């Protein structure tokens, strides 16, 4: 009969099988791609909102796939997290970004106050060798640790609050900064936040998007900035696309920001010009 329980089970299993097969082939493809040097980093500038001066860059992974073209991280990071390939990929992103940046700083000696932000995934954060990997990337590249900022999402911190506190302590003791990414989406516990040695809160793009349409979102952003100030942290807004959004963020006292209004993520070869101009284009 149609829709008998056993049929449903078979359909379900087939669906699972298909998904598992797709993830397996994506995983193999990523492994091949990493060996073939198809992965690279683009850099999105971060600016001081009050002056428009350059503050630093966020490193974002890209995959230049032979058939698919440029693939964005939203399409492969979740699969990489699931399969455990994120350790190799995250390691690559961190070392590559540190190397690119150390080289860049050598050719622009006057501007070596510019920071590099690198994203760290939940799985990387939970693994015990993260601090060794960070030390290696810094040591090998020669990047001054004070210029490196690691971005950890609010949800991964809240998933492992005790472990996060220990790792954050270890990272901070090296002189490296910590930013809480996607802030406002992860149900933070204020008591956890207060105990962590943080430097920055990054307001999630979803709030910035709705800043001009929704007074509630505007109030959320105001509350995040107030919280950030009271914890003596810097606030970064991401996904600024319009000058109206920029105006509101400025008036709310948000210190730093990034978004398509000022610049999309750039190829490493385009960074020296931006550093020289030192302004939101
Ligand atoms: P994220 O850390 O929240 O990064 C911000 C994302 O917003 C980036 O997407 C960036 O290109 C995009 N963006 C910046 N400005 C604007 C804007 O004005 N409008 C819009 N609509 N988008 C903007 P991207 O590069 O696709 O990265 C997506 C996510 O993938 C990142 O979100 C981050 O969670 C993850 N990711 C990227 N690189 C890495 C990496 O090296 N390691 C890990 N673990 N995750 C990474
Ligand atoms: Ca980020
Ligand atoms: Ca973010
Ligand atoms: Ca995000």
Automatic annotation (TrEMBL):
<feature type="domain" description="EAL">
    <location>
        <begin position="23"/>
        <end position="279"/>
    </location>
</feature>
<protein>
    <submittedName>
        <fullName>Signaling protein</fullName>
    </submittedName>
</protein>
